[in-house]
Fold these 2 entries.
Entry 1:
Amino acid sequence: MTFFAIRTSPQKELALAGSHDAKGEWVKGMLERQGYTVFCPTETRWQRQFRKGKRRPVSRPMLPGYIFVAGPVDWPSLLSENHITGVIGRDGMPWPISDFDMQRLRSMADSATPHRRSVNQRRTLHEGDKVEVIRGPYSGMVSEVKGLSGRKAKILLMLFGAQREVYIAHEDLEAA
Protein backbone atom coordinates (compact mmCIF):
# COMPACT_ATOMS: atom_id res chain seq x y z
CA MET A 1 0.00 0.00 0.00
CA THR A 2 1.48 3.36 -1.03
CA PHE A 3 1.36 6.23 1.47
CA PHE A 4 1.60 9.95 0.75
CA ALA A 5 2.47 12.77 3.18
CA ILE A 6 -0.24 15.39 3.65
CA ARG A 7 0.17 18.80 5.33
CA THR A 8 -2.53 19.74 7.83
CA SER A 9 -3.69 22.80 9.73
CA PRO A 10 -2.08 23.23 13.14
CA GLN A 11 -3.29 20.74 15.77
CA LYS A 12 -5.73 19.00 13.39
CA GLU A 13 -3.68 15.84 12.77
CA LEU A 14 -5.61 13.62 15.19
CA ALA A 15 -8.99 15.04 14.12
CA LEU A 16 -8.19 13.99 10.53
CA ALA A 17 -6.47 10.68 11.30
CA GLY A 18 -8.28 9.47 14.42
CA SER A 19 -7.17 8.80 17.98
CA HIS A 20 -7.94 6.95 21.19
CA ASP A 21 -10.46 8.52 23.56
CA ALA A 22 -10.18 8.67 27.37
CA LYS A 23 -11.49 5.07 27.64
CA GLY A 24 -8.88 3.80 25.18
CA GLU A 25 -11.37 3.16 22.36
CA TRP A 26 -10.48 4.16 18.81
CA VAL A 27 -12.38 7.15 17.42
CA LYS A 28 -12.19 7.43 13.63
CA GLY A 29 -10.92 10.67 12.15
CA MET A 30 -12.61 12.62 9.37
CA LEU A 31 -10.53 11.01 6.60
CA GLU A 32 -10.88 7.49 7.99
CA ARG A 33 -14.67 7.90 8.01
CA GLN A 34 -14.44 8.73 4.28
CA GLY A 35 -12.65 5.43 3.55
CA TYR A 36 -9.01 6.51 3.47
CA THR A 37 -6.27 4.57 5.23
CA VAL A 38 -4.65 7.17 7.48
CA PHE A 39 -1.58 7.02 9.71
CA CYS A 40 -0.50 9.70 12.17
CA PRO A 41 2.63 8.69 14.14
CA THR A 42 2.29 9.74 17.76
CA GLU A 43 4.53 9.95 20.78
CA THR A 44 3.47 9.74 24.40
CA ARG A 45 4.52 12.47 26.80
CA TRP A 46 3.76 12.94 30.46
CA GLN A 47 1.82 16.11 31.14
CA ARG A 48 1.00 17.64 34.50
CA GLN A 49 -2.71 18.29 35.09
CA PHE A 50 -3.46 21.95 35.68
CA ARG A 51 -5.26 21.83 39.03
CA LYS A 52 -4.33 18.48 40.58
CA GLY A 53 -0.64 18.50 39.70
CA LYS A 54 -0.73 14.79 38.76
CA ARG A 55 1.03 13.52 35.68
CA ARG A 56 -0.86 11.71 32.96
CA PRO A 57 0.22 10.30 29.59
CA VAL A 58 -0.82 12.39 26.59
CA SER A 59 -0.51 11.20 23.00
CA ARG A 60 0.70 13.88 20.56
CA PRO A 61 1.64 13.84 16.87
CA MET A 62 5.30 12.98 16.31
CA LEU A 63 5.37 15.14 13.17
CA PRO A 64 3.16 18.18 13.87
CA GLY A 65 1.38 19.35 10.75
CA TYR A 66 1.68 16.06 8.82
CA ILE A 67 -0.28 12.84 8.38
CA PHE A 68 0.06 9.96 5.92
CA VAL A 69 -2.76 8.79 3.61
CA ALA A 70 -2.94 5.61 1.52
CA GLY A 71 -5.36 3.84 -0.74
CA PRO A 72 -7.12 5.06 -3.84
CA VAL A 73 -6.88 8.82 -3.37
CA ASP A 74 -9.12 11.32 -5.13
CA TRP A 75 -6.68 14.24 -4.88
CA PRO A 76 -9.02 17.12 -5.82
CA SER A 77 -11.61 16.12 -3.22
CA LEU A 78 -8.96 15.33 -0.60
CA LEU A 79 -7.20 18.68 -1.04
CA SER A 80 -10.52 20.53 -0.80
CA GLU A 81 -11.13 18.94 2.62
CA ASN A 82 -11.09 21.23 5.67
CA HIS A 83 -7.76 21.37 7.54
CA ILE A 84 -5.69 19.95 4.66
CA THR A 85 -3.24 22.55 3.38
CA GLY A 86 -1.25 20.57 0.81
CA VAL A 87 0.79 17.53 -0.12
CA ILE A 88 4.51 16.80 0.00
CA GLY A 89 5.70 16.49 -3.56
CA ARG A 90 6.81 18.44 -6.57
CA ASP A 91 4.79 20.68 -8.89
CA GLY A 92 1.59 19.85 -7.01
CA MET A 93 2.06 16.11 -7.53
CA PRO A 94 2.43 14.01 -4.37
CA TRP A 95 5.50 11.84 -3.86
CA PRO A 96 4.92 8.32 -2.57
CA ILE A 97 6.62 7.34 0.70
CA SER A 98 8.61 4.11 0.42
CA ASP A 99 7.43 1.03 2.34
CA PHE A 100 10.79 0.98 4.17
CA ASP A 101 10.33 4.56 5.44
CA MET A 102 6.73 3.89 6.50
CA GLN A 103 7.87 0.79 8.39
CA ARG A 104 10.50 2.88 10.20
CA LEU A 105 7.88 5.47 11.11
CA ARG A 106 5.54 2.79 12.42
CA SER A 107 8.30 1.28 14.54
CA MET A 108 9.17 4.68 16.03
CA ALA A 109 5.59 5.65 16.85
CA ASP A 110 4.71 5.68 20.56
CA SER A 111 8.26 4.77 21.56
CA ALA A 112 10.36 7.68 20.31
CA THR A 113 10.13 9.94 23.37
CA PRO A 114 11.48 8.79 26.71
CA HIS A 115 9.16 10.15 29.34
CA ARG A 116 10.34 11.75 32.55
CA ARG A 117 9.57 8.71 34.68
CA SER A 118 12.20 6.66 32.87
CA VAL A 119 14.82 9.41 32.52
CA ASN A 120 15.23 11.92 35.32
CA GLN A 121 16.90 14.84 33.60
CA ARG A 122 17.96 16.51 36.85
CA ARG A 123 20.03 13.49 37.88
CA THR A 124 21.74 13.20 34.52
CA LEU A 125 23.20 16.72 34.48
CA HIS A 126 25.37 18.38 37.11
CA GLU A 127 27.41 21.55 37.17
CA GLY A 128 30.82 20.89 35.68
CA ASP A 129 29.64 18.07 33.35
CA LYS A 130 30.81 18.16 29.73
CA VAL A 131 27.80 18.19 27.39
CA GLU A 132 27.12 18.26 23.67
CA VAL A 133 24.15 20.11 22.18
CA ILE A 134 22.21 17.53 20.14
CA ARG A 135 19.34 19.68 18.76
CA GLY A 136 18.84 23.25 17.67
CA PRO A 137 21.03 25.92 16.12
CA TYR A 138 24.02 25.06 18.34
CA SER A 139 23.91 21.36 17.47
CA GLY A 140 27.31 19.65 17.73
CA MET A 141 28.87 22.23 20.05
CA VAL A 142 30.51 20.91 23.24
CA SER A 143 30.73 22.85 26.49
CA GLU A 144 30.67 22.57 30.28
CA VAL A 145 27.52 23.03 32.40
CA LYS A 146 27.97 26.23 34.41
CA GLY A 147 24.59 26.15 36.16
CA LEU A 148 21.13 24.59 36.23
CA SER A 149 17.93 26.63 36.21
CA GLY A 150 14.72 24.60 36.23
CA ARG A 151 14.57 22.57 33.03
CA LYS A 152 17.46 24.44 31.39
CA ALA A 153 21.23 24.30 31.74
CA LYS A 154 23.50 27.33 31.51
CA ILE A 155 26.50 26.68 29.26
CA LEU A 156 29.15 28.89 27.66
CA LEU A 157 29.47 28.73 23.87
CA MET A 158 31.92 30.47 21.56
CA LEU A 159 29.68 32.75 19.47
CA PHE A 160 30.74 35.70 17.33
CA GLY A 161 34.30 35.57 18.62
CA ALA A 162 33.47 35.57 22.35
CA GLN A 163 32.09 33.18 24.95
CA ARG A 164 28.39 33.76 25.54
CA GLU A 165 26.05 32.38 28.21
CA VAL A 166 23.31 30.27 26.64
CA TYR A 167 20.43 28.45 28.32
CA ILE A 168 19.60 25.12 26.66
CA ALA A 169 16.77 22.71 27.57
CA HIS A 170 17.98 19.52 29.30
CA GLU A 171 16.49 17.29 26.60
CA ASP A 172 18.62 19.07 23.97
CA LEU A 173 21.87 18.13 25.75
CA GLU A 174 23.77 14.86 25.98
CA ALA A 175 26.85 13.85 27.98
CA ALA A 176 30.00 14.40 25.92
Entry 2:
Amino acid sequence: MYPVEEFIYNYEGNQREIMLFFHQTLVSEFNLRPKISYKIPFYYRKSWICYLNPVKEDGVEFAFPRGNELSNEQGLLEEKGRQQVRGIVFKELSDIPFQTLKEILQEAIVLDEKIPYKSYRKK
Protein backbone atom coordinates (compact mmCIF):
# COMPACT_ATOMS: atom_id res chain seq x y z
CA MET A 1 0.00 0.00 0.00
CA TYR A 2 1.24 3.50 -0.83
CA PRO A 3 1.75 6.01 1.99
CA VAL A 4 -1.12 8.18 0.65
CA GLU A 5 -3.56 5.27 0.72
CA GLU A 6 -2.26 4.32 4.16
CA PHE A 7 -2.91 7.91 5.27
CA ILE A 8 -6.48 7.79 3.92
CA TYR A 9 -7.26 4.46 5.59
CA ASN A 10 -6.31 5.95 8.97
CA TYR A 11 -9.53 7.97 8.72
CA GLU A 12 -13.11 6.75 9.00
CA GLY A 13 -16.57 7.53 7.67
CA ASN A 14 -17.11 10.53 5.44
CA GLN A 15 -13.51 11.71 5.60
CA ARG A 16 -12.19 8.38 4.32
CA GLU A 17 -14.93 8.15 1.68
CA ILE A 18 -14.26 11.69 0.38
CA MET A 19 -10.47 11.29 0.36
CA LEU A 20 -10.69 7.89 -1.38
CA PHE A 21 -12.97 9.34 -4.04
CA PHE A 22 -10.60 12.24 -4.73
CA HIS A 23 -7.49 10.05 -4.56
CA GLN A 24 -8.82 7.51 -7.07
CA THR A 25 -10.11 10.25 -9.38
CA LEU A 26 -6.92 12.35 -9.27
CA VAL A 27 -4.66 9.36 -9.91
CA SER A 28 -6.71 7.49 -12.52
CA GLU A 29 -8.52 10.27 -14.41
CA PHE A 30 -6.01 13.10 -14.14
CA ASN A 31 -2.76 11.08 -13.92
CA LEU A 32 -1.53 13.01 -10.91
CA ARG A 33 1.22 11.58 -8.70
CA PRO A 34 0.26 11.30 -5.02
CA LYS A 35 2.78 12.06 -2.29
CA ILE A 36 2.60 12.89 1.39
CA SER A 37 3.98 16.41 1.96
CA TYR A 38 3.46 18.52 5.06
CA LYS A 39 1.81 15.40 6.58
CA ILE A 40 -1.12 15.39 4.10
CA PRO A 41 -1.69 14.01 0.54
CA PHE A 42 -0.56 16.29 -2.30
CA TYR A 43 -1.02 15.55 -6.00
CA TYR A 44 1.62 16.53 -8.56
CA ARG A 45 2.42 16.88 -12.23
CA LYS A 46 5.41 19.22 -12.69
CA SER A 47 4.68 20.84 -9.34
CA TRP A 48 1.83 20.57 -6.87
CA ILE A 49 -1.69 20.78 -8.28
CA CYS A 50 -3.91 20.16 -5.25
CA TYR A 51 -4.08 18.54 -1.84
CA LEU A 52 -6.50 16.90 0.58
CA ASN A 53 -6.62 18.15 4.15
CA PRO A 54 -8.86 16.43 6.71
CA VAL A 55 -10.44 19.13 8.88
CA LYS A 56 -12.48 19.13 12.07
CA GLU A 57 -16.17 18.19 12.03
CA ASP A 58 -15.53 15.28 9.64
CA GLY A 59 -14.76 17.42 6.61
CA VAL A 60 -12.04 17.33 3.97
CA GLU A 61 -10.65 20.45 2.34
CA PHE A 62 -9.84 20.03 -1.35
CA ALA A 63 -7.36 22.82 -1.97
CA PHE A 64 -5.10 24.30 -4.62
CA PRO A 65 -1.71 25.69 -3.52
CA ARG A 66 -1.73 28.01 -6.56
CA GLY A 67 -5.39 28.92 -6.07
CA ASN A 68 -4.66 32.65 -6.28
CA GLU A 69 -3.56 32.08 -9.90
CA LEU A 70 -6.80 30.31 -10.87
CA SER A 71 -9.78 32.21 -12.30
CA ASN A 72 -12.29 30.75 -9.82
CA GLU A 73 -15.04 31.82 -12.19
CA GLN A 74 -17.18 29.07 -10.65
CA GLY A 75 -16.97 30.92 -7.32
CA LEU A 76 -16.32 27.65 -5.48
CA LEU A 77 -12.88 28.23 -3.99
CA GLU A 78 -12.46 30.16 -0.74
CA GLU A 79 -9.34 32.03 0.31
CA LYS A 80 -9.94 32.07 4.10
CA GLY A 81 -7.34 34.79 4.63
CA ARG A 82 -4.60 32.90 2.76
CA GLN A 83 -2.43 34.61 0.17
CA GLN A 84 -2.04 31.73 -2.29
CA VAL A 85 -4.12 28.71 -1.32
CA ARG A 86 -7.79 28.43 -2.28
CA GLY A 87 -10.00 25.51 -1.34
CA ILE A 88 -13.40 24.15 -0.43
CA VAL A 89 -14.46 21.88 2.44
CA PHE A 90 -16.71 18.89 1.81
CA LYS A 91 -18.51 16.96 4.55
CA GLU A 92 -20.47 14.53 2.35
CA LEU A 93 -19.51 12.75 -0.85
CA SER A 94 -22.88 13.77 -2.31
CA ASP A 95 -21.97 17.49 -1.83
CA ILE A 96 -19.12 17.35 -4.35
CA PRO A 97 -19.96 19.23 -7.59
CA PHE A 98 -17.73 16.96 -9.64
CA GLN A 99 -18.18 18.61 -13.06
CA THR A 100 -17.33 22.03 -11.62
CA LEU A 101 -14.28 20.65 -9.82
CA LYS A 102 -13.14 18.97 -13.05
CA GLU A 103 -13.07 22.41 -14.72
CA ILE A 104 -11.00 23.85 -11.87
CA LEU A 105 -8.63 20.86 -11.96
CA GLN A 106 -8.17 21.20 -15.72
CA GLU A 107 -7.31 24.87 -15.25
CA ALA A 108 -4.82 24.02 -12.46
CA ILE A 109 -3.16 21.39 -14.66
CA VAL A 110 -2.85 23.80 -17.61
CA LEU A 111 -1.37 26.42 -15.26
CA ASP A 112 1.16 23.84 -14.00
CA GLU A 113 2.14 22.90 -17.55
CA LYS A 114 2.46 26.46 -18.88
CA ILE A 115 3.73 28.57 -15.99
CA PRO A 116 6.43 27.17 -13.70
CA TYR A 117 5.69 27.47 -10.00
CA LYS A 118 7.63 30.20 -8.19
CA SER A 119 7.93 30.04 -4.43
CA TYR A 120 6.84 33.20 -2.65
CA ARG A 121 8.69 32.29 0.54
CA LYS A 122 11.10 34.86 1.86
CA LYS A 123 14.68 33.73 1.65
